[in-house]
Amino acid sequence: MQYLDGKRLQRAVTAGSLWLGRNREGLNAINVFPVADGDTGTNMALTLHAAVAGAKAAKSNSLHDVADSIALHSLRGARGNSGVIMSQYFKGIADFVRQKDRLPLPEVAGVFSAGAESAYMAMTEPKEGTILTVLREIADHLKDAGDRFVDLLQLLESAVDKGKVSLAETKNKLRVLAEADVVDAGAQGFVHFIDGIYRFIKTGEMAGETDQAIPVEDIPEEVAEHSKYRYCSEFLVKGVSFDTVAVKSALAEMGDSLIVAGAAIGKDSYLRIHIHTDNPDLIKEYALKMGVLENTKIEDMKAQNESMRKWRMNFRKSSKKTIRIVTDSTSDLPADIAAFHDIEVVPLNVIYGDRVYRDGIDMDKDAFYKMLIESPEFPKTSQPSPERFAESYRRVFSRGDADTIISIHVSSRLSGTYNSALKASEEFSEKIIHFDTESVSLGLGLMAIKAAEMAKNGRSPKEIIAVLNDLKRNNVLYFTLETVDYLVKGGRIGRARGFVGRILGLKPVLTLVDGEVAPLDKARDDEKILRKILSHLPEHLIGGKLAVAHAADPAKIDFIKRALGDKFDVDDILVGEIGPTVGAHTGPGTWGLFFMKG
After folding, report:
1. Do 281 and 137 share a structural domain?
2. Which of 281, 299, 317 is the last residue of a domain?
3. pLDDT for the residue 87
Protein backbone atom coordinates (compact mmCIF):
# COMPACT_ATOMS: atom_id res chain seq x y z
CA MET A 1 0.00 0.00 0.00
CA GLN A 2 1.84 3.04 -1.32
CA TYR A 3 -0.80 5.76 -1.00
CA LEU A 4 -3.79 7.03 0.96
CA ASP A 5 -7.04 7.86 -0.85
CA GLY A 6 -10.62 8.56 0.14
CA LYS A 7 -11.79 4.96 0.31
CA ARG A 8 -8.79 3.93 2.39
CA LEU A 9 -9.32 6.86 4.77
CA GLN A 10 -12.96 5.88 5.15
CA ARG A 11 -12.07 2.29 5.99
CA ALA A 12 -9.26 3.38 8.31
CA VAL A 13 -11.52 5.62 10.40
CA THR A 14 -14.13 2.85 10.59
CA ALA A 15 -11.57 0.27 11.73
CA GLY A 16 -10.06 2.61 14.31
CA SER A 17 -13.51 3.51 15.64
CA LEU A 18 -14.51 -0.14 16.04
CA TRP A 19 -11.33 -1.03 17.90
CA LEU A 20 -11.63 1.92 20.25
CA GLY A 21 -15.31 1.05 20.79
CA ARG A 22 -14.36 -2.41 22.03
CA ASN A 23 -12.18 -0.74 24.65
CA ARG A 24 -14.50 2.09 25.68
CA GLU A 25 -15.31 0.77 29.17
CA GLY A 26 -11.64 0.33 29.94
CA LEU A 27 -11.04 3.96 28.95
CA ASN A 28 -13.91 5.07 31.18
CA ALA A 29 -12.40 3.08 34.03
CA ILE A 30 -8.97 4.81 33.89
CA ASN A 31 -10.34 8.32 33.20
CA VAL A 32 -8.96 10.64 35.91
CA PHE A 33 -7.91 13.75 33.94
CA PRO A 34 -8.87 16.58 33.41
CA VAL A 35 -11.69 15.50 35.72
CA ALA A 36 -12.50 12.07 37.06
CA ASP A 37 -15.94 11.70 35.50
CA GLY A 38 -15.54 8.27 33.94
CA ASP A 39 -16.70 9.10 30.40
CA THR A 40 -13.62 9.44 28.17
CA GLY A 41 -14.24 6.11 26.44
CA THR A 42 -17.89 6.92 25.83
CA ASN A 43 -17.08 10.41 24.56
CA MET A 44 -14.35 9.25 22.18
CA ALA A 45 -16.49 6.38 20.89
CA LEU A 46 -19.44 8.67 20.15
CA THR A 47 -17.16 11.21 18.46
CA LEU A 48 -15.68 8.49 16.26
CA HIS A 49 -19.16 7.16 15.44
CA ALA A 50 -19.88 10.65 14.06
CA ALA A 51 -16.58 10.60 12.15
CA VAL A 52 -17.49 7.27 10.55
CA ALA A 53 -20.91 8.66 9.59
CA GLY A 54 -19.10 11.59 7.99
CA ALA A 55 -16.78 9.27 6.06
CA LYS A 56 -19.80 7.46 4.64
CA ALA A 57 -21.67 10.70 3.88
CA ALA A 58 -18.89 12.30 1.78
CA LYS A 59 -20.13 13.67 -1.54
CA SER A 60 -17.43 11.74 -3.42
CA ASN A 61 -14.66 9.20 -2.78
CA SER A 62 -11.90 11.76 -3.26
CA LEU A 63 -9.50 12.07 -0.35
CA HIS A 64 -10.29 15.73 0.33
CA ASP A 65 -14.09 15.24 0.24
CA VAL A 66 -13.91 12.30 2.66
CA ALA A 67 -11.54 14.20 4.98
CA ASP A 68 -13.76 17.31 4.93
CA SER A 69 -16.86 15.29 5.74
CA ILE A 70 -15.09 13.47 8.59
CA ALA A 71 -13.93 16.80 10.05
CA LEU A 72 -17.39 18.37 9.90
CA HIS A 73 -19.32 15.39 11.25
CA SER A 74 -16.82 14.67 14.03
CA LEU A 75 -17.03 18.30 15.17
CA ARG A 76 -20.82 18.23 15.19
CA GLY A 77 -20.83 14.92 17.09
CA ALA A 78 -17.86 15.63 19.37
CA ARG A 79 -18.21 14.97 23.10
CA GLY A 80 -15.85 15.78 25.94
CA ASN A 81 -12.25 17.00 25.94
CA SER A 82 -10.82 14.09 24.02
CA GLY A 83 -13.71 14.03 21.56
CA VAL A 84 -13.28 17.69 20.63
CA ILE A 85 -9.51 17.19 20.37
CA MET A 86 -10.10 14.27 17.97
CA SER A 87 -12.43 16.41 15.86
CA GLN A 88 -9.70 19.04 15.54
CA TYR A 89 -7.17 16.34 14.68
CA PHE A 90 -9.43 15.42 11.76
CA LYS A 91 -9.75 19.10 10.83
CA GLY A 92 -5.97 19.34 10.56
CA ILE A 93 -5.93 16.30 8.30
CA ALA A 94 -8.66 17.83 6.11
CA ASP A 95 -6.69 21.07 5.76
CA PHE A 96 -3.53 19.13 4.90
CA VAL A 97 -5.07 17.05 2.08
CA ARG A 98 -7.01 20.00 0.62
CA GLN A 99 -7.68 19.51 -3.12
CA LYS A 100 -5.88 16.14 -3.20
CA ASP A 101 -7.44 12.92 -4.42
CA ARG A 102 -4.67 10.74 -3.03
CA LEU A 103 -1.56 11.10 -0.88
CA PRO A 104 1.67 9.22 -1.75
CA LEU A 105 3.42 7.28 1.02
CA PRO A 106 6.22 9.87 1.69
CA GLU A 107 3.56 12.51 2.45
CA VAL A 108 1.40 10.41 4.79
CA ALA A 109 3.55 11.31 7.82
CA GLY A 110 2.41 14.89 7.23
CA VAL A 111 -1.15 13.81 8.08
CA PHE A 112 -0.09 13.03 11.64
CA SER A 113 1.78 16.33 12.00
CA ALA A 114 -1.12 18.40 10.63
CA GLY A 115 -3.60 16.66 12.93
CA ALA A 116 -1.44 17.16 16.02
CA GLU A 117 -0.81 20.84 15.25
CA SER A 118 -4.52 21.50 14.71
CA ALA A 119 -5.40 19.81 18.03
CA TYR A 120 -2.86 21.94 19.90
CA MET A 121 -4.20 25.12 18.28
CA ALA A 122 -7.74 24.46 19.56
CA MET A 123 -6.59 24.33 23.20
CA THR A 124 -6.36 27.45 25.33
CA GLU A 125 -3.88 25.81 27.72
CA PRO A 126 -2.37 22.65 26.14
CA LYS A 127 -1.37 20.18 28.83
CA GLU A 128 1.57 17.82 28.38
CA GLY A 129 1.17 14.22 29.51
CA THR A 130 -2.20 13.95 27.78
CA ILE A 131 -3.49 12.86 24.37
CA LEU A 132 -1.83 16.00 22.94
CA THR A 133 1.63 14.74 23.88
CA VAL A 134 1.03 11.37 22.25
CA LEU A 135 -0.31 13.03 19.08
CA ARG A 136 2.78 15.23 18.85
CA GLU A 137 5.34 12.56 19.68
CA ILE A 138 3.92 10.12 17.12
CA ALA A 139 3.95 12.90 14.51
CA ASP A 140 7.56 13.91 15.32
CA HIS A 141 8.66 10.27 15.22
CA LEU A 142 7.16 9.67 11.78
CA LYS A 143 8.58 12.94 10.47
CA ASP A 144 12.10 12.07 11.70
CA ALA A 145 11.84 8.63 10.13
CA GLY A 146 11.78 10.28 6.70
CA ASP A 147 11.13 7.96 3.77
CA ARG A 148 12.38 4.71 5.31
CA PHE A 149 8.90 3.09 5.34
CA VAL A 150 8.22 0.66 2.51
CA ASP A 151 4.41 0.79 2.81
CA LEU A 152 1.52 2.09 4.94
CA LEU A 153 1.49 -1.03 7.12
CA GLN A 154 5.08 -0.45 8.23
CA LEU A 155 4.39 3.23 8.84
CA LEU A 156 1.37 2.46 11.04
CA GLU A 157 3.22 -0.28 12.93
CA SER A 158 5.92 2.29 13.75
CA ALA A 159 3.25 4.81 14.80
CA VAL A 160 1.62 2.27 17.14
CA ASP A 161 4.95 1.30 18.69
CA LYS A 162 5.88 4.95 19.30
CA GLY A 163 2.38 5.65 20.61
CA LYS A 164 2.65 2.90 23.22
CA VAL A 165 6.01 4.22 24.43
CA SER A 166 4.68 7.78 24.59
CA LEU A 167 1.52 6.56 26.32
CA ALA A 168 3.47 4.78 29.05
CA GLU A 169 5.29 8.02 29.82
CA THR A 170 2.09 10.02 30.44
CA LYS A 171 1.84 8.75 34.02
CA ASN A 172 5.28 10.29 34.64
CA LYS A 173 4.30 13.69 33.23
CA LEU A 174 1.09 14.41 35.13
CA ARG A 175 0.94 14.06 38.89
CA VAL A 176 -2.74 13.08 38.88
CA LEU A 177 -1.93 10.13 36.62
CA ALA A 178 1.03 9.12 38.76
CA GLU A 179 -1.12 9.21 41.90
CA ALA A 180 -3.76 6.99 40.29
CA ASP A 181 -1.06 4.86 38.60
CA VAL A 182 -2.79 4.94 35.22
CA VAL A 183 -1.99 6.35 31.79
CA ASP A 184 -4.02 9.17 30.27
CA ALA A 185 -7.36 7.82 29.06
CA GLY A 186 -7.56 10.10 26.01
CA ALA A 187 -4.03 9.17 24.96
CA GLN A 188 -4.85 5.48 25.41
CA GLY A 189 -7.95 5.99 23.28
CA PHE A 190 -5.90 7.48 20.43
CA VAL A 191 -3.44 4.57 20.57
CA HIS A 192 -6.41 2.17 20.37
CA PHE A 193 -7.65 4.13 17.35
CA ILE A 194 -4.33 3.87 15.48
CA ASP A 195 -3.90 0.26 16.57
CA GLY A 196 -7.31 -0.61 15.13
CA ILE A 197 -6.28 0.80 11.76
CA TYR A 198 -2.99 -1.12 11.86
CA ARG A 199 -4.75 -4.39 12.75
CA PHE A 200 -7.22 -3.92 9.89
CA ILE A 201 -4.50 -3.31 7.29
CA LYS A 202 -2.48 -6.25 8.60
CA THR A 203 -5.32 -8.78 8.69
CA GLY A 204 -7.92 -7.34 6.33
CA GLU A 205 -10.55 -7.87 9.03
CA MET A 206 -12.39 -5.33 11.16
CA ALA A 207 -13.63 -5.91 14.71
CA GLY A 208 -16.96 -7.72 14.51
CA GLU A 209 -19.83 -8.94 16.64
CA THR A 210 -18.03 -12.10 17.76
CA ASP A 211 -14.89 -10.32 18.96
CA GLN A 212 -13.99 -10.47 22.65
CA ALA A 213 -13.57 -7.07 24.29
CA ILE A 214 -10.13 -6.37 25.74
CA PRO A 215 -9.82 -6.86 29.54
CA VAL A 216 -8.64 -4.01 31.72
CA GLU A 217 -5.93 -4.69 34.29
CA ASP A 218 -5.13 -1.36 35.97
CA ILE A 219 -8.13 0.42 37.46
CA PRO A 220 -7.76 3.04 40.18
CA GLU A 221 -10.23 2.41 43.00
CA GLU A 222 -10.10 5.92 44.43
CA VAL A 223 -9.60 9.16 42.54
CA ALA A 224 -10.21 12.75 43.52
CA GLU A 225 -11.95 15.50 41.63
CA HIS A 226 -9.44 17.80 39.91
CA SER A 227 -11.52 20.56 38.36
CA LYS A 228 -12.48 23.46 40.59
CA TYR A 229 -15.54 23.94 38.40
CA ARG A 230 -18.71 21.86 38.48
CA TYR A 231 -20.20 21.72 34.98
CA CYS A 232 -18.73 20.28 31.79
CA SER A 233 -20.44 22.43 29.16
CA GLU A 234 -20.48 22.07 25.38
CA PHE A 235 -22.21 24.21 22.78
CA LEU A 236 -22.39 23.69 19.01
CA VAL A 237 -23.13 26.88 17.06
CA LYS A 238 -23.97 27.14 13.36
CA GLY A 239 -23.17 30.40 11.59
CA VAL A 240 -21.40 32.03 8.68
CA SER A 241 -17.87 32.39 10.08
CA PHE A 242 -16.20 32.47 13.48
CA ASP A 243 -13.12 34.06 14.98
CA THR A 244 -11.89 31.23 17.21
CA VAL A 245 -9.06 33.34 18.66
CA ALA A 246 -11.52 36.02 19.79
CA VAL A 247 -13.88 33.41 21.27
CA LYS A 248 -11.05 31.82 23.27
CA SER A 249 -10.02 35.23 24.57
CA ALA A 250 -13.60 36.12 25.59
CA LEU A 251 -14.14 32.85 27.50
CA ALA A 252 -10.66 32.31 28.97
CA GLU A 253 -11.56 33.62 32.42
CA MET A 254 -14.90 31.81 32.70
CA GLY A 255 -13.57 28.31 33.38
CA ASP A 256 -10.87 25.81 32.53
CA SER A 257 -10.35 22.99 29.99
CA LEU A 258 -11.47 25.48 27.32
CA ILE A 259 -11.41 24.21 23.75
CA VAL A 260 -12.74 26.30 20.86
CA ALA A 261 -12.98 24.32 17.65
CA GLY A 262 -14.33 25.13 14.21
CA ALA A 263 -15.02 23.51 10.85
CA ALA A 264 -16.66 24.68 7.65
CA ILE A 265 -17.91 23.23 4.39
CA GLY A 266 -19.34 25.55 1.76
CA LYS A 267 -21.39 28.32 3.32
CA ASP A 268 -21.92 26.56 6.64
CA SER A 269 -19.53 27.07 9.54
CA TYR A 270 -19.71 25.32 12.89
CA LEU A 271 -18.13 26.25 16.20
CA ARG A 272 -17.90 23.95 19.21
CA ILE A 273 -17.13 25.36 22.65
CA HIS A 274 -16.04 23.00 25.42
CA ILE A 275 -15.44 24.43 28.89
CA HIS A 276 -15.56 23.45 32.57
CA THR A 277 -17.39 26.25 34.34
CA ASP A 278 -19.74 27.17 37.18
CA ASN A 279 -21.77 29.43 34.87
CA PRO A 280 -22.92 27.41 31.84
CA ASP A 281 -25.87 29.76 31.27
CA LEU A 282 -23.49 32.68 30.65
CA ILE A 283 -21.56 30.64 28.10
CA LYS A 284 -24.86 29.72 26.45
CA GLU A 285 -25.89 33.39 26.21
CA TYR A 286 -22.55 34.20 24.57
CA ALA A 287 -22.93 31.30 22.10
CA LEU A 288 -26.44 32.41 21.12
CA LYS A 289 -25.10 35.80 20.05
CA MET A 290 -22.88 34.18 17.42
CA GLY A 291 -25.42 32.08 15.55
CA VAL A 292 -27.94 29.25 15.86
CA LEU A 293 -27.35 26.95 18.80
CA GLU A 294 -27.61 23.44 17.35
CA ASN A 295 -26.69 21.43 20.40
CA THR A 296 -26.08 21.91 24.12
CA LYS A 297 -24.63 19.50 26.67
CA ILE A 298 -24.24 20.49 30.33
CA GLU A 299 -23.13 17.73 32.71
CA ASP A 300 -22.64 17.83 36.46
CA MET A 301 -19.07 16.57 36.92
CA LYS A 302 -19.48 16.19 40.66
CA ALA A 303 -22.38 13.78 40.17
CA GLN A 304 -20.44 11.94 37.46
CA ASN A 305 -17.44 11.59 39.76
CA GLU A 306 -19.58 10.11 42.53
CA SER A 307 -21.21 7.64 40.12
CA MET A 308 -17.84 6.67 38.69
CA ARG A 309 -16.44 5.88 42.14
CA LYS A 310 -19.28 3.42 42.78
CA TRP A 311 -18.82 1.89 39.34
CA ARG A 312 -15.07 1.35 39.78
CA MET A 313 -15.70 -0.77 42.85
CA ASN A 314 -17.75 -3.22 40.77
CA PHE A 315 -15.87 -3.02 37.48
CA ARG A 316 -15.14 -6.48 36.14
CA LYS A 317 -11.81 -7.46 34.59
CA SER A 318 -13.50 -8.43 31.37
CA SER A 319 -15.59 -5.74 29.72
CA LYS A 320 -17.34 -8.29 27.51
CA LYS A 321 -21.11 -7.74 27.63
CA THR A 322 -23.80 -9.89 26.12
CA ILE A 323 -26.83 -7.64 26.74
CA ARG A 324 -27.39 -3.98 25.85
CA ILE A 325 -30.34 -1.81 26.90
CA VAL A 326 -32.33 0.39 24.53
CA THR A 327 -35.04 2.80 25.67
CA ASP A 328 -36.81 5.87 24.29
CA SER A 329 -36.60 9.57 25.05
CA THR A 330 -39.75 9.59 27.20
CA SER A 331 -37.46 8.08 29.87
CA ASP A 332 -36.10 11.62 30.46
CA LEU A 333 -32.74 10.12 31.45
CA PRO A 334 -30.02 12.78 31.74
CA ALA A 335 -27.53 12.28 28.90
CA ASP A 336 -24.60 11.60 31.20
CA ILE A 337 -26.55 8.94 33.13
CA ALA A 338 -27.62 7.18 29.91
CA ALA A 339 -24.03 7.29 28.61
CA PHE A 340 -22.60 6.05 31.90
CA HIS A 341 -24.91 3.00 31.90
CA ASP A 342 -24.40 2.49 28.14
CA ILE A 343 -28.12 2.89 27.45
CA GLU A 344 -29.13 3.70 23.86
CA VAL A 345 -31.93 6.29 23.78
CA VAL A 346 -34.15 6.45 20.68
CA PRO A 347 -35.75 9.91 20.25
CA LEU A 348 -39.47 10.46 19.74
CA ASN A 349 -40.69 13.28 17.50
CA VAL A 350 -42.11 16.68 18.40
CA ILE A 351 -44.03 18.32 15.56
CA TYR A 352 -44.68 22.05 15.20
CA GLY A 353 -46.58 22.78 12.00
CA ASP A 354 -44.59 21.19 9.18
CA ARG A 355 -41.35 20.92 11.18
CA VAL A 356 -40.37 17.68 12.90
CA TYR A 357 -37.84 17.78 15.75
CA ARG A 358 -36.15 14.77 17.32
CA ASP A 359 -36.52 14.93 21.09
CA GLY A 360 -33.18 15.88 22.66
CA ILE A 361 -31.33 16.09 19.32
CA ASP A 362 -32.85 18.80 17.11
CA MET A 363 -34.37 20.74 20.00
CA ASP A 364 -33.12 21.15 23.56
CA LYS A 365 -35.42 21.53 26.56
CA ASP A 366 -34.96 25.29 26.96
CA ALA A 367 -35.88 26.00 23.34
CA PHE A 368 -38.85 23.65 23.53
CA TYR A 369 -40.46 25.18 26.63
CA LYS A 370 -39.89 28.67 25.26
CA MET A 371 -41.74 27.66 22.10
CA LEU A 372 -44.44 25.86 24.08
CA ILE A 373 -45.17 29.00 26.12
CA GLU A 374 -44.91 31.55 23.30
CA SER A 375 -46.29 29.73 20.26
CA PRO A 376 -50.05 29.84 19.63
CA GLU A 377 -49.70 26.46 17.95
CA PHE A 378 -49.96 23.32 20.07
CA PRO A 379 -47.27 20.71 19.34
CA LYS A 380 -47.95 17.13 18.38
CA THR A 381 -45.81 14.16 19.25
CA SER A 382 -45.22 10.87 17.46
CA GLN A 383 -43.36 7.67 18.16
CA PRO A 384 -40.09 6.84 16.35
CA SER A 385 -40.58 4.97 13.10
CA PRO A 386 -39.74 1.25 13.01
CA GLU A 387 -36.81 2.12 10.74
CA ARG A 388 -35.38 4.51 13.35
CA PHE A 389 -35.54 1.74 15.93
CA ALA A 390 -33.97 -0.66 13.45
CA GLU A 391 -31.11 1.81 12.85
CA SER A 392 -30.50 1.99 16.60
CA TYR A 393 -30.54 -1.79 16.94
CA ARG A 394 -28.07 -2.13 14.05
CA ARG A 395 -25.79 0.48 15.62
CA VAL A 396 -25.80 -1.35 18.96
CA PHE A 397 -25.03 -4.72 17.37
CA SER A 398 -22.33 -3.20 15.11
CA ARG A 399 -20.21 -2.45 18.19
CA GLY A 400 -19.67 -6.15 18.58
CA ASP A 401 -20.14 -6.35 22.36
CA ALA A 402 -23.75 -7.58 22.50
CA ASP A 403 -25.72 -10.56 21.27
CA THR A 404 -29.02 -9.52 22.89
CA ILE A 405 -30.91 -6.23 23.25
CA ILE A 406 -33.61 -5.61 25.84
CA SER A 407 -35.75 -2.76 24.50
CA ILE A 408 -37.60 -1.03 27.37
CA HIS A 409 -40.34 1.50 26.63
CA VAL A 410 -43.03 3.93 27.70
CA SER A 411 -46.49 2.55 28.48
CA SER A 412 -48.17 1.28 25.32
CA ARG A 413 -51.37 2.96 26.55
CA LEU A 414 -49.70 6.37 26.32
CA SER A 415 -47.75 5.97 23.06
CA GLY A 416 -47.32 3.76 20.01
CA THR A 417 -43.57 3.61 20.73
CA TYR A 418 -43.63 0.06 22.09
CA ASN A 419 -45.44 -1.28 19.01
CA SER A 420 -43.07 0.60 16.69
CA ALA A 421 -40.08 -1.00 18.43
CA LEU A 422 -41.77 -4.40 18.23
CA LYS A 423 -42.23 -4.05 14.47
CA ALA A 424 -38.60 -2.95 14.00
CA SER A 425 -37.29 -6.12 15.61
CA GLU A 426 -38.65 -8.46 12.94
CA GLU A 427 -35.36 -8.47 11.00
CA PHE A 428 -33.35 -9.39 14.12
CA SER A 429 -34.98 -12.75 14.85
CA GLU A 430 -34.96 -13.43 18.62
CA LYS A 431 -32.01 -11.17 19.45
CA ILE A 432 -34.30 -8.40 20.77
CA ILE A 433 -36.60 -8.68 23.80
CA HIS A 434 -39.23 -5.97 24.35
CA PHE A 435 -40.67 -4.78 27.62
CA ASP A 436 -43.65 -2.48 28.23
CA THR A 437 -42.97 -0.73 31.55
CA GLU A 438 -46.49 0.76 31.82
CA SER A 439 -44.64 3.83 33.07
CA VAL A 440 -43.12 7.05 31.72
CA SER A 441 -40.41 9.63 32.41
CA LEU A 442 -38.01 8.66 35.22
CA GLY A 443 -40.27 5.74 36.18
CA LEU A 444 -39.20 4.24 32.86
CA GLY A 445 -35.69 5.63 33.35
CA LEU A 446 -35.19 3.89 36.71
CA MET A 447 -36.18 0.55 35.18
CA ALA A 448 -33.77 1.04 32.26
CA ILE A 449 -30.93 1.79 34.70
CA LYS A 450 -31.75 -1.32 36.77
CA ALA A 451 -31.73 -3.48 33.63
CA ALA A 452 -28.37 -2.01 32.53
CA GLU A 453 -26.85 -2.67 35.97
CA MET A 454 -28.03 -6.28 35.88
CA ALA A 455 -26.70 -6.74 32.34
CA LYS A 456 -23.29 -5.41 33.38
CA ASN A 457 -23.26 -7.87 36.29
CA GLY A 458 -23.77 -10.80 33.96
CA ARG A 459 -27.45 -11.56 34.62
CA SER A 460 -29.35 -13.42 31.90
CA PRO A 461 -32.19 -11.93 29.81
CA LYS A 462 -34.66 -14.18 31.60
CA GLU A 463 -33.47 -12.95 35.02
CA ILE A 464 -33.61 -9.31 33.93
CA ILE A 465 -37.15 -9.60 32.55
CA ALA A 466 -38.31 -11.33 35.73
CA VAL A 467 -36.95 -8.48 37.85
CA LEU A 468 -38.48 -5.88 35.51
CA ASN A 469 -41.88 -7.53 35.92
CA ASP A 470 -41.52 -7.29 39.70
CA LEU A 471 -40.44 -3.65 39.40
CA LYS A 472 -43.42 -2.85 37.18
CA ARG A 473 -45.74 -4.00 39.96
CA ASN A 474 -43.84 -1.86 42.48
CA ASN A 475 -43.04 1.20 40.36
CA VAL A 476 -45.25 4.19 41.13
CA LEU A 477 -45.24 7.78 40.03
CA TYR A 478 -47.16 10.80 41.25
CA PHE A 479 -47.25 14.07 39.37
CA THR A 480 -48.96 17.42 39.42
CA LEU A 481 -49.58 20.10 36.80
CA GLU A 482 -49.72 23.88 36.77
CA THR A 483 -52.63 23.53 34.35
CA VAL A 484 -54.52 20.58 32.90
CA ASP A 485 -54.82 22.29 29.49
CA TYR A 486 -51.85 20.48 27.94
CA LEU A 487 -53.00 17.08 29.18
CA VAL A 488 -56.47 17.64 27.74
CA LYS A 489 -55.21 18.99 24.38
CA GLY A 490 -52.70 16.14 24.04
CA GLY A 491 -55.37 13.50 24.60
CA ARG A 492 -53.41 11.60 27.30
CA ILE A 493 -55.83 12.33 30.13
CA GLY A 494 -57.02 8.72 30.49
CA ARG A 495 -59.18 7.96 33.53
CA ALA A 496 -58.73 11.48 34.93
CA ARG A 497 -61.03 13.17 32.40
CA GLY A 498 -64.01 13.58 34.73
CA PHE A 499 -61.84 14.33 37.75
CA VAL A 500 -60.00 17.35 36.28
CA GLY A 501 -63.28 18.99 35.44
CA ARG A 502 -64.34 18.99 39.10
CA ILE A 503 -61.29 20.29 40.96
CA LEU A 504 -62.34 23.96 40.78
CA GLY A 505 -58.97 25.68 40.65
CA LEU A 506 -57.11 23.16 42.77
CA LYS A 507 -54.08 21.37 41.41
CA PRO A 508 -54.54 17.68 40.57
CA VAL A 509 -52.38 14.89 41.94
CA LEU A 510 -52.26 12.21 39.25
CA THR A 511 -50.74 8.78 38.89
CA LEU A 512 -50.63 5.90 36.41
CA VAL A 513 -52.85 2.85 36.78
CA ASP A 514 -52.34 -0.01 34.33
CA GLY A 515 -50.25 2.34 32.20
CA GLU A 516 -52.71 5.23 31.85
CA VAL A 517 -53.31 8.50 33.72
CA ALA A 518 -55.60 8.23 36.73
CA PRO A 519 -56.68 10.71 39.48
CA LEU A 520 -55.28 10.36 42.99
CA ASP A 521 -55.89 13.57 44.97
CA LYS A 522 -55.98 17.36 44.77
CA ALA A 523 -54.55 20.29 46.74
CA ARG A 524 -54.09 24.04 46.53
CA ASP A 525 -50.28 24.37 46.50
CA ASP A 526 -47.07 22.37 46.04
CA GLU A 527 -46.40 22.00 49.77
CA LYS A 528 -49.77 20.35 50.40
CA ILE A 529 -49.43 18.26 47.25
CA LEU A 530 -46.06 16.97 48.42
CA ARG A 531 -47.48 16.05 51.83
CA LYS A 532 -50.26 14.08 50.15
CA ILE A 533 -47.78 12.29 47.86
CA LEU A 534 -45.48 11.42 50.76
CA SER A 535 -48.43 9.88 52.58
CA HIS A 536 -48.72 7.33 49.76
CA LEU A 537 -45.07 6.28 49.99
CA PRO A 538 -43.87 3.51 52.34
CA GLU A 539 -42.48 4.38 55.75
CA HIS A 540 -39.06 3.01 54.87
CA LEU A 541 -37.02 3.01 51.66
CA ILE A 542 -35.32 -0.36 52.10
CA GLY A 543 -34.23 -1.53 48.65
CA GLY A 544 -36.07 1.30 46.91
CA LYS A 545 -35.06 4.05 44.49
CA LEU A 546 -36.35 7.62 44.25
CA ALA A 547 -36.35 10.07 41.36
CA VAL A 548 -37.69 13.59 40.85
CA ALA A 549 -38.40 15.29 37.51
CA HIS A 550 -39.48 18.83 36.65
CA ALA A 551 -40.61 20.68 33.54
CA ALA A 552 -38.72 23.99 33.18
CA ASP A 553 -38.95 24.61 36.93
CA PRO A 554 -35.69 23.47 38.62
CA ALA A 555 -36.36 25.62 41.70
CA LYS A 556 -38.82 22.99 42.92
CA ILE A 557 -36.22 20.23 43.05
CA ASP A 558 -34.43 21.31 46.24
CA PHE A 559 -37.77 21.70 48.03
CA ILE A 560 -38.82 18.15 47.06
CA LYS A 561 -35.41 16.59 47.78
CA ARG A 562 -35.30 18.16 51.26
CA ALA A 563 -38.68 16.64 52.10
CA LEU A 564 -37.59 13.24 50.79
CA GLY A 565 -34.31 13.46 52.71
CA ASP A 566 -36.16 14.26 55.92
CA LYS A 567 -38.49 11.29 55.47
CA PHE A 568 -36.03 8.67 54.23
CA ASP A 569 -32.58 10.02 55.20
CA VAL A 570 -31.28 9.56 51.63
CA ASP A 571 -29.35 11.78 49.24
CA ASP A 572 -29.03 9.38 46.28
CA ILE A 573 -32.01 10.70 44.33
CA LEU A 574 -32.05 10.69 40.53
CA VAL A 575 -32.98 14.12 39.17
CA GLY A 576 -34.02 14.86 35.60
CA GLU A 577 -35.88 17.38 33.50
CA ILE A 578 -39.03 16.36 31.68
CA GLY A 579 -38.21 16.46 27.99
CA PRO A 580 -40.18 17.72 24.99
CA THR A 581 -42.16 14.53 24.28
CA VAL A 582 -43.64 14.24 27.78
CA GLY A 583 -43.57 18.01 28.37
CA ALA A 584 -45.81 18.64 25.36
CA HIS A 585 -48.59 16.81 27.22
CA THR A 586 -47.93 18.09 30.75
CA GLY A 587 -46.72 21.68 30.23
CA PRO A 588 -44.16 23.81 32.09
CA GLY A 589 -44.27 23.77 35.89
CA THR A 590 -45.12 20.07 36.05
CA TRP A 591 -43.20 17.98 38.55
CA GLY A 592 -43.28 14.35 39.46
CA LEU A 593 -41.96 11.97 42.09
CA PHE A 594 -41.04 8.39 41.21
CA PHE A 595 -40.58 5.45 43.57
CA MET A 596 -39.30 2.03 42.53
CA LYS A 597 -39.22 -0.76 45.10
CA GLY A 598 -36.59 -3.40 44.48
Report:
1. no
2. 299
3. 93
